[in-house]
Amino acid sequence: MGNTIKRLTRKPPQSLTIRQLMSYEFDLQRKKFIVTGSSSGYGLALSKLLTQLNGHVIGTVRSTEKSKPTLDSVREHLEKTKPKNPGVFETMQLELTSFDSVRNFAQEYQAKHSNLHALVNNAGIGLLPEFKRTVDGFEETYQVNLLSPYYLTTQLVPLLRRGVRDYGEPSKILFISSKIHHYPRDETFLLERHWNDPKEYQPNKQYAYSKLAAILVMLEMAERLESYQIHVNALDPVGSLSLNTNFHRYSEEDAKNNLMTFLRRFKQITSPDKAAYYALNTLANPDHRDTTGEYFTRMNIRLPSRLANNEELCMEMLDQTEYCIYTALKEKHRERQQSQK
Questions:
Q1: Nearest Cα to 178, choosing from 251, 314, 292, 270?
Q2: Which residue, of 126, 156, 157, 303, has the fewest CB within 10 Å?
């Protein structure tokens, strides 16, 4: 079914170590970066690093109450590291369980900023103890890990295109992924009628398939956006899911223990501060200026799930994602019209 995507079978280039990457004298020149889920864990560590290197970072937080602690944490980091040319860090509110929030964020960002260099879709959730449906009608894991990040990305593509024009180099989209996406062995559960059915809900399975679906969508997006010089990649930072993040904010203690067992099985535990350099490698390393449609593990380009070899499946996943978003937005529009009568 479908054709093998040739780029997945090529020999990866030689990778750098973190020590080698740190020897580069990075100056991000106030290019604008959006990092979702920046209030803790991996998103916060990456926001600190990009700001330290003179980036203009817009970190998203789920509530206004999280803004001050996040701003304070970045400020303290800059005071400690004392960079020669520190960048700018600001926060904006974004709740990925709501398409309305995604649209409002994109509109507010466009009102404040004229372009965007890179979008890091970092925020995620997993291992919810029970099925939970969002206000848009979808299981929460899938909406937060796939539907809303994709919707956000499409809303920001015009600004990413302006970034290409203004900065004179490709813009970047980075999906934070996980080796756990290798866990699924077949494509059946990728269909919306399965992952959106409470009777079929299993926390581990739901999370793994949501990450696989995001990889498939990423690959198809890379194909479609390459002509605009917008490059799309995925990264397993092997550290974004430690217990000091909001990743499992709804999980009970036993679910957290299950998470750690699951992650250790896939060797998923690394310091977020160290793992932030893995994202920097994909976003700013000159060797990856033109890299697109790739799956990174730490500093290395690796092959994603064998299911990602199916080009037709990648197209189907993107089409299904767009259809889910379209139907939800259409229903919301209909409800608003009825309420105004």
A1: 270
A2: 303
Backbone dihedral angles phi then psi of residue 128, each to the nearest 5 degrees: -65, 135
Q: Over the stretch 222-273, which tens digit does the pLDDT of each residue have?
A: 999 999 999 999 999 875 554 445 555 555 555 555 555 555 555 556 688 8
Distance separating alpha carbons of residues 106 and 4, to the nearest angstrom: 35
How far separated are the first and last CA of the chain, in Å rounded?
49
pLDDT band at 25 (very low <50, low <70, confident <90, very high): confident
Tokens 């999906």, residue?
Answer: 175
Judge residue 155's burial from the number of C-beta atoms within 10 Å of its C-beta, 0-12 exposed, 13-18 middle, 19 or more buried.
middle
Taking the C-alpha atoms of residue 181 and residue 184, their distance in angstroms, rounded to an integer, is 7
Residues with catalytic annotation? 207
Q: CB-hemisphere CA count at 13 Å for 139?
A: 29
Label residue 1 by pLDDT band (50, 70, 90). Answer: very low
Q: Stretch 121-135: mean pLDDT, rounded? A: 95
Write the pLDDT tens digit of every residue in 108-120: 999 999 999 999 9
Q: What is the largest CA-CA distance in the chain?
A: 63
C-beta separation of 78 from 158 below 8 A: no
Q: Which two tokens stand for residue 295?
A: 């799956």
Closest C-alpha among 119, 47, 116, 60 to residue 87: 47
What's at 191, amino acid-wise?
L
Kindly give, in sequence order, each residue whose CB lies less than 8 Å from that of residue 316, ignoring residues fewer than 6 positions away: none
